[in-house]
Design a protein that fits this description.
The complex is a heterodimer of chains A (294) and B (467). Chain A is of the alpha/beta class. Chain A is 33% helix and 30% strand. The termini of chain B are far apart. Chain B is an alpha/beta fold and 467 residues long. Classes of the chains: A alpha/beta (294), B alpha/beta (467). At the A-B interface, helix 1, strand 8, helix 8 and helix 9 of A face strand 5 and helix 14 of B. The complex binds flavin-adenine dinucleotide (FAD) (2 copies), iron/sulfur cluster (2 copies) and FE2/S2 (inorganic) cluster.
């Protein structure tokens, strides 16, 4: 059991948990994720480690509600426990001195790029972050990123804040800006966004690394469920990744494989929502979001 | 009783659930013997002086001894003899391939049928579990601490043997539940999870600590265990590793599983409970499984229980070459599994929306023997045919998991990535031992346990010499 130290909403349906997991915290590197389970008949789901504090023995998770397990996690409060946290898993991001690196994060993908930003900065890169959300309320970790990046460009689909449009629009501006050439791009977020990022940078032959999010079970290489096709080869995202050369990833296949359980996941989610015990807990958590954002 | 009388007793049978009933449920197939039946079977043992059966057992169970105790009706004594050599008899009594281990070399096998050593072993274990508290008087502590990586049969056995010698033992397990393949692979209907749990609990009572959710190679490296975490020796038993896919077109389709994933979803994650579990498995009426080992049998019988009709197993060699336990093949057929032998899948077909709709197979014939001495299957040209299915499961083997070995580059591996060990189970790093599937490639529960036992004695000697 892993004690939750802090729980708060970062955006609608996006919650941050700071959890005591000292062994994970002391071994965390950017790019790592954990596998989490939150009740006895629960699923195992992968979540990126958004931050860690080895001294306090804690890790930070940023979770977007998309189904039953993420909703259960987001109903948890400080003082409660997460049943299982296994990790850190995956290959860490290869932190090198590239020159000018642009990090592109969409939605909770921003939680993936945050630790990368700090590490890339510390080895002497110039680091720019482009982060997107549907509207202002959905842009997360902006202040945290500002503290470690040379520039941060928030983008909103509805134009309510920062750059009006998709992150790829802003990215295009940056790669076309001859005065400040881009040497590498790292991206994490929804699959269509990462695919679009790869398209922008492919034309310019800019090295681009995407953090993939296939369905996982064990996270240790045992099941092969997380297989993705990269450069025509079958790779297991949990052991060979989750970061791969975005120009070589078969994003369409990934998109399709992510729909494998859609109907069944929806049925599980609907059952959870009918459970009165869960409902009241979840509503209490959501009320907090309304109070904090007014 | 005279040997001639013993020879007259026929081999007793194991009562089992009716095939039509069990093909629709996940309860155990074999129901266990009654005391009288077990004693009658025990009377078949000739109590050989120079018992041939024992060298057939990788953990050296005193077979004649425990069987004689059953015949005498002294079950506590039978249990004592058993646990002395084997800390997981409820498991081995159910899943050991006895026909190629102890029972193969039993003298009675030459004339008729072997003593049912496995059934009797299961009988003793079940009796002990239900009828007595495990009494374990811990020996004086040695002050030495041993870390074990992985809680499959190799790790559990090594832990038990080291605890018996007074060492402090901690098992680190990557998953959320201990047992390895025993909990995520082998299904409930063959090995109830309650049995694994009770044998694991017995080890805990012996003082073995089990810490789940720890991945050695990532949460800690082997070097850290030795240099920072205060362990004096390490036993690596992290199992077989990554599932192999055939590499045929269509493997990205939804409905293609490795047997490991299919079985993990259903067993460990409880998808067999239907609405009770959050972990889904794709629904299907027609399932094809490729492979001929225990894993393939478990996958196809699981599919049958989840309602598949037909549930088909395809295997590229002939029936005689199937590595699965004979009992599993028999049970599978009784349950209505279709065995299609000398058949090899060559392509998985999609329905245009990303889902599996069938598999194209090729008929094979047996040619010249290959390196393994088995006759090589060769395709018959023009024999392609299609089997419709919505789930296609590959159970064709595994290759070594690189997570731990990558983080420990000093560890000497063979060309397949498996860890090399000496006759005491020690690796190229002093104080670091290994055993089970990570050394052998996919093998069996009892060979893994045998390795655990050899390593425990190797570790004990190493620690006694001040290592
Ligand atoms: C390496 C990695 C890192 C991730 N990091 C984060 C993160 O930091 N924050 C975050 O909010 N999300 C993250 N995700 C995605 C997260 O794991 C899924 O949103 C979560 O599993 C959904 O579970 P659910 O039960 O709530 O939803 P479900 O109802 O199970 O599924 C909703 C959708 O999520 C996807 N999904 C389902 N199960 C899984 C699974 N086991 N693994 C991956 N995707 C799945 C499917 O596309 C599905 O359609 C990450 C995924 C990966 C692979
Ligand atoms: C479906 C199936 C059916 C089978 N049926 C039979 C049968 O009937 N009879 C028989 O004799 N054999 C059978 N086998 C084979 C047998 O189960 C294996 O040979 C045996 O389990 C190997 O034992 P092990 O201890 O080496 O590894 P495993 O049982 O594989 O256990 C290894 C454990 O280590 C953990 N682990 C892995 N990496 C790490 C890490 N880095 N850190 C910490 N923990 C880690 C794993 O999660 C796992 O729990 C079957 C195998 C399968 C898959
Ligand atoms: S452990 Fe296996 S090989 Fe040994 S006696 Fe028992 S059934 Fe036979
Ligand atoms: S070889 Fe067969 S008959 Fe002889 S002791 Fe062993 S089990 Fe009994
Ligand atoms: S999640 Fe099972 S192999 Fe990657």
């Amino acid at each position: 059991m892993f004690l939750i130290h802090e729980a708060k909403w970062l955006a609608p349906r996006v919650r941050q948990l700071i959890v005591e997991a000292p062994r994970v915290a002391s071994h965390h590197q950017p790019g790592h994720f954990v596998i989490v389970r939150c009740h006895y008949d629960g699923e195992r789901i992968p979540l990126t480690i958004a931050d860690s504090d080895p001294k306090a023995g804690t890790i930070t998770l940023v979770i977007q509600i998309v189904g039953a397990t993420t909703e259960r996690l987001c109903a948890l409060e400080a003082g409660e426990h997460v049943l299982d946290i296994a990790g850190p898993l995956g290959k860490p991001t290869e932190i090198e001195k590239f020159g000018h690196v642009v990090l592109v994060g969409g939605g909770v993908g921003t939680a993936v790029i945050y630790p990368q930003a700090g590490a890339l900065k510390s080895v002497g890169n110039k680091v720019t972050a482009v982060i997107g959300g549907r509207s202002k309320a959905y842009v997360i970790l902006e202040d945290e990123l500002k503290a470690v990046c040379d520039a941060v460009y928030p983008c909103t689909d509805d134009g309510s804040y920062g750059y009006g449009g998709f992150v790829t629009g802003k990215l295009e501006e940056l790669v076309n800006d001859g005065s400040n050439p881009v040497d590498a791009v790292l991206t994490a977020g929804p699959v269509p966004m990462m695919k679009a990022v790869a398209k922008v940078t492919r034309e310019k032959s800019i090295l681009t690394i995407a953090s993939l999010n296939p369905i996982m079970v064990d996270g240790t290489g045992m099941c092969g469920g997380c297989r993705v096709t990269v450069d025509g080869k079958q790779r297991f995202a949990c052991v060979h990744g989750p970061e791969f050369d975005a120009h070589k990833v078969d994003f369409d296949e990934l998109t399709d494989r992510l729909t494998a359980y859609r109907d069944q996941e929806e049925a599980t989610w609907a059952r959870l929502r009918k459970d009165p015990a869960h409902k009241c807990k979840f509503e209490a958590a959501e009320r907090e979001l309304k109070e904090s954002t007014g | 009783m005279k040997p001639a009388e013993r020879m007259k007793i026929p081999r007793q049978t194991m009562p089992e659930q009716e095939a039509e009933v069990r093909a629709r449920n996940f309860s155990e197939v074999n129901l266990g013997m009654a005391l009288e039946v077990a004693r009658r079977e025990a009377d078949r043992c000739l109590r050989c002086k120079d018992a041939k059966c024992v060298p057939g057992c990788p953990v050296d169970v005193d077979i004649a001894g425990f069987i004689a105790a059953i015949a005498d009706g002294d079950l506590p004594k039978a249990a004592d003899i058993m646990y002395e050599a084997n800390v997981l008899p409820g498991i081995t009594g159910r899943v050991c391939p006895q026909e190629t281990q102890c029972e193969e070399v039993c003298v009675r096998a030459k004339k008729g049928s072997a003593v049912a050593i496995g059934y009797l072993e299961r009988f003793v274990a079940d009796w002990a579990r239900e009828n007595r508290e495990q009494i374990f008087t811990p020996p004086p502590p040695t002050g030495k601490a041993v870390a074990i990586v992985g809680s499959g049969p190799a790790g559990l056995t090594c832990a038990g043997e080291l605890a018996k010698k007074g060492h402090e033992v901690t098992i680190f397990e990557a998953l959320h539940k201990p047992g390895g393949v025993l909990v995520y692979g082998i299904p409930e209907f063959r090995l109830p999870k309650e049995i694994v749990k009770s044998e694991v609990d017995a080890l805990r009572q012996m003082g073995v600590k089990i810490e789940c959710n720890v991945i050695i190679g990532l949460t800690y490296t082997v070097t850290e265990l030795l240099e920072k975490e205060g362990f004096d020796a390490v036993f690596i038993a992290n199992g077989a590793g990554l599932p192999i896919f055939q590499g045929i077109p269509g493997e990205h389709l939804k409905g293609v599983y490795s047997a490991n994933e299919y079985l993990t979803r259903v067993n460990l994650m409880g998808a067999f409970k239907g609405e009770g579990s959050d972990t889904p498995v794709i629904k299907s009426t027609q399932v094809v499984v490729v492979g001929g080992g225990n894993t393939a049998m478990d996958a196809v019988r699981t599919a049958r229980r989840l309602g598949a009709d037909p549930a088909t197993l395809v295997y590229r060699r002939s029936r005689a070459e199937m590595p699965a336990r004979i009992e599993e093949i028999k049970h599978a057929e009784e349950e209505g599994v279709v065995l299609d032998i000398l058949v090899n899948p060559v392509e998985i077909l999609g329905d245009g929306d990303g889902w599996v709709r069938g598999v194209v197979c090729q008929r094979m014939e047996l040619g010249e023997p290959d390196d393994s001495g088995r006759r090589r299957p060769v395709p018959i040209p023009g024999s392609e045919f299609e089997i419709p299915c919505q789930i296609f499961v590959e159970a064709i083997g595994t290759r070594a998991n690189p997570l731990l070995t990558q983080s420990t580059p000093e560890l000497k591996l063979n060309k397949w990535g498996n860890i090399e060990v000496d006759e005491h189970g020690m690796t190229s790093i002093p104080g670091v031992f290994a055993g089970g599937d990570i050394v052998r490639g996919g093998a069996t529960v009892i060979l893994a346990m045998g390795d655990g036992k050899v390593a425990a004695s190797g570790i004990h000697d190493y620690l006694s010499k001040g290592g």
